[in-house]
Design brief:
Elements lengths: L1 H6 L1 H4 L1 H17 L5 H30 L11 E2 L2 E2 L6 H28 L6 H26 L10
Antiparallel strand pairs: 1-2
Helix pairs in contact: 3-4, 3-6, 4-5, 5-6
Length: 158
């Protein structure tokens, strides 16, 4: 089961990142266009990002457990993070950005539920947090992808 989860981590990452980027666009447009539908779209995309990041985290933990460092030793994982050895620095940053983004996504999900229930959250705060989430997950996803799809992955193309 862990192998199945680990193999699907890279596929699972795309939906929460895409939802957060689209939510950021909706929030930024919402600063200039005051339409109820636009804020509803933002709220649904924010909830989608939060809901779809949960399987991403589960598959990411399985993927981290199955990784090996340059010396062929398995990564040591203490709790949610790999050991802070020099060879693990990019994976550690990837995990920290992903988990930080998940916490921020949870906050945005609470704000989104409040918005869907008729409350009016501060549009500037929503736009700032939503853009920050897209940046966190974008950079974190890039770091994780660089670890997986490095030049060593396809040595025939060097």
């Amino acid at each position: 089961m862990e192998l199945f989860l680990a193999q699907n981590h890279s596929a699972m990452t795309h939906l929460p990142i895409a939802a957060s980027i689209m939510a950021a666009f909706a929030a930024l447009i919402g600063l200039y266009v005051n339409r109820r539908e636009l804020f509803r779209i933002w709220a649904i995309l924010s909830l989608t990002a939060f809901i779809t990041v949960l399987p991403t985290i589960i598959t990411g933990i399985a993927a981290a457990k199955g990784r090996f460092n340059e010396e062929g030793q398995p990564y040591i994982q203490k709790g949610l993070f790999v050991d802070r050895a020099p060879g693990n620095s990019r994976i550690f940053q990837h995990q920290a950005l992903g988990i930080g983004g998940t916490i921020l996504s949870g906050i945005l999900a609470v704000i989104a539920v409040a918005r869907l229930r008729g409350r009016e959250p501060n549009r500037f705060l929503v736009a700032l947090l939503t853009v920050l989430l897209a940046i966190l997950w974008g950079i974190g996803g890039h770091l994780g992808g660089a670890e997986l799809w490095s030049p060593d992955t396809f040595p025939a193309f060097q």
